[in-house]
Design brief:
A hairpin with a 2-residue loop joins strand 21 and strand 22. Strands 1, 2, 3, 4, 5, 6, 7, 8 and 9 form a 9-stranded mixed sheet that branches. This protein has a 5-stranded mixed sheet with strand order 10-11-14-12-13, sandwiched between helices. It has 22 helices and 24 strands. It is of the alpha+beta class. About 40% of the residues lie in helices and about 20% in strands. It binds 3-[3-(1H-pyrrolo[2,3-b]pyridin-5-yl)phenyl]propanoic acid. 3-[3-(1H-pyrrolo[2,3-b]pyridin-5-yl)phenyl]propanoic acid binds next to helix 3 and strand 7.
């Protein structure tokens, strides 16, 4: 056979191997939207992190190139380039065979579930161009691919003193459309990875536009993560960090109590955020409750057979729990819930023993914690009384709807929508504009109560929150019942200015803390009102972003008159309907649990009690606040 023919045969084989990935990308990377698009980066990154976990890699660089391709470089061992038993180069096998990484048995902690671990070959299959460069044993090798198929042999191109792997790829527009990489989205995840892998240096650079660059590097690991999360809170102890290997499982956690009314709990398994929790989280909570009960009892803080609840010990606590599990089973809707039953006991025992020792050895911190927990317990009792009082007045359980709500006439929740509208004036326009049959309007006045600063019984007394609870019909937090939800689309509609973005963050936080299942079920949305009205002669078009405006002004609408909408109130009802509320033409952004989590985090830092950090944060992250507008 002639060499060309041989190569063609091989190409066909490769295509056959990766064809399923191109046919059903969602099965391999979750979806082909924003999340899947960025997952490509994390998939390559996972390999570099594996090298770090194995002790071979100290530096990782991620660069978003001008052409919206991305380069990921590490100083690990480099993908092996020698001959594989299949007769092909090992590099080519890793890049073109699904799950080949596992066949090299390089992973200490195999990720068997979730979306992670499908391998770089899946990224290769979904890239219109991928170039890999290996520095290994003093030599530099390169190979290129298109849509997973090699376009060259592995080539030795020179000598090198460096070591490691550089993967540069451009996601295939046939699959991902014209999406581009979102700096802040990557930033969030890279920062998290740097916290989870103490000492590892991760650089992120954007070669487009402004050319941002940042390095994430935390010698203190998850202990520093907790300090970061609590930056704006008033701390009542120094952070406590503990790590232990139990059999093949590695348990690591950091905790710190603050005087906040809310818990903040982040859990990870093999560097994957377990949004839905799982057996490790259950084990942790059980141990925490037991250790605190024992301590309070032996210290004489609790009389008779009184016990404190899990909720009381969690109030004000910030936790980062990170596990390394050999064969994790991920379950749940988003495959982010740990299912391994043996883990619960392992975590429970480890956390209980270490907390017990900590409490014994740090009497002044322990006293402060005990008092905080007692305070939480008393506040909860007060809240219960307040709730009972409200119940008796039958506000929450009656069928009385709040006065400000303009309800829709169709009572079928699957067809009903609730618009939460900022301000009475926009509320008025929305009431005139709406489709009465399916769209209900609840205007919210002023700033909704700051749930970060308020204890539960104050939150309950707040008029805006009460109206929302009544309109939703579900009750909230511990009494939440999703089957009573009156609308399956809840749309947050706020102005496109700083105040609007603030109120939106606040509402997202409120839903995240009190009505989380509404987000999990995909019922919460953000309306996308236009930023500009562009008028030329009789033609009126709307622009929803600065980019869109510029496009319009360069094209057909050259020389047009521009009006910037500062608030929803500036639109008349017809315009509001056409641009933002008409189901036929509007765009709604569905809120994901990650969005809400990010809002919650941002909110904690923005609204936490301490003023200094808040000012610093606003100055540093003004761009991200804006990013919530998207
Ligand atoms: C297969 C085997 C080994 C390392 C890798 C793959 C590897 C893959 C990637 C992808 C990005 N960076 C990477 N670094 C390493 C083990 C190498 C050995 O045993 O020497």
């Amino acid at each position: 056979m002639a060499p060309e023919e041989e190569y063609t045969a091989e190409q066909i084989q490769v295509l056959e191997g990766l064809e399923p990935v191109r046919k059903r990308p969602a099965m391999y990377i979750g979806d082909v939207g924003k999340r899947g698009f960025h997952h490509l980066v994390f998939e390559v990154l996972d390999n570099a992190i594996d090298e770090a976990l194995a002790g071979y890699c100290t530096d990782i660089g991620v660069v978003i190139n001008k052409d919206d391709s991305i380069s990921i470089a590490d100083n690990g061992r480099g993908i092996p380039t020698g001959m594989h038993k299949s007769g092909k180069s090992a590099l080519e096998v890793v890049m073109t065979v699904l799950h080949a990484g596992g066949k090299f048995e390089k992973k200490a902690y195999q990720v068997s579930g979730g979306l992670h671990g499908v391998g770089v070959s899946a990224v290769n299959a979904l890239s219109e161009q991928l170039d890999v460069e290996i520095h290994r044993d003093g030599k530099t090798y390169v190979q290129s691919y298109k849509r997973g198929a090699p376009t060259s042999e592995v080539k030795l191109v020179g000598e090198t003193k460096k070591r490691g792997t550089i993967v540069r790829f451009k996601p295939d527009h046939e699959i991902f459309g014209d999406q581009t990489f979102d700096y802040n989205y990557l930033r969030e995840h890279l920062m998290e990875l740097a916290y989870l892998n103490a000492g590892l240096k991760i650089l992120l650079k954007d070669e487009r536009g402004k050319g941002q660059v940042e390095t994430f590097h935390y010698e203190g690991g998850i202990k520093e993560f907790v300090e970061y999360l609590n930056k704006a809170r008033t701390k009542i102890q120094k952070p406590f960090y503990y790590k232990k290997k139990v059999g093949s499982t590695e348990v690591e956690y950091a905790v710190q109590y603050t005087d906040s009314y809310n818990e903040l709990m982040y859990s990870f398994v093999n560097d994957i955020k377990t949004i839905e929790g799982g057996t490790h989280v259950t084990g942790f909570k059980t141990a925490l409750t037991r250790a605190m009960n024992e301590y309070l009892k032996s210290g004489g803080y609790l009389k008779g057979d009184r016990r404190i609840s899990g909720n009381d010990v969690l109030e004000g606590l910030t936790v980062v729990l990170s596990l390394k599990v050999q064969e994790p089973q991920f379950e749940g809707q988003t495959k982010t819930k740990l299912g391994n039953s043996e883990i619960k006991g392992q975590v429970d025992r480890t956390v209980f023993e270490s907390l017990k020792t900590f409490l014994e050895e740090n009497p002044s911190d322990s006293r402060a914690i005990a008092n905080k927990i007692l305070k939480s317990m008393h506040a909860r009792e007060a809240a219960q009384k307040a709730k009972d009082l409200i119940r008796r007045k039958s506000v929450f359980e009656s069928s009385i709807l709040p006065g400000k709500l303009a309800d829709c006439t169709d009572s079928d929740p699957t067809k009903a929508e609730l618009y939460l509208v900022e301000g009475d004036s926009a509320g008025g326009s929305a009431k005139q504009a709406r489709d009465r049959k399916h769209q209900a309007i609840l205007p919210l006045r002023g700033k909704i109560l700051n749930v970060e600063k308020a204890p539960l019984h104050r939150a309950l007394a707040n008029e805006e929150i009460k109206s929302m609870v009544l309109a939703l019909g579900t009750g909230f937090r511990d009494d939440f019942n999703i089957s009573k939800l009156r609308y399956h689309k809840i749309v947050v509609m706020t102005d496109a200015d700083v105040d609007g973005s603030h109120i939106r963050t606040l509402l997202l936080t409120l839903f995240y803390r009190y009505f989380r299942p509404i987000i999990e079920q995909g019922y919460l949305y953000i309306a996308q009102p236009p930023l500009y009205k562009v008028k030329k002669g009789k033609t009126i078009v709307y622009a929803y972003s600065d980019d869109e405006l510029n496009m319009l002004l360069k094209g057909e609408m050259k020389g047009a008159e521009i009006q910037r909408y500062k608030g929803l109130g500036e639109m008349n009802p017809d315009q509001l309907w056409d641009t933002t509320m008409d189901p036929e033409t509007r765009t709604l952004k569905q809120v994901t649990i990650e969005d809400a989590m990010a809002a919650d985090e941002l909110f904690t830092i923005l609204m936490g009690v301490e003023v200094g950090p808040r000012r610093d944060f606003i100055q540093k992250h003004a761009a991200e606040v804006k990013n919530l507008d998207v």
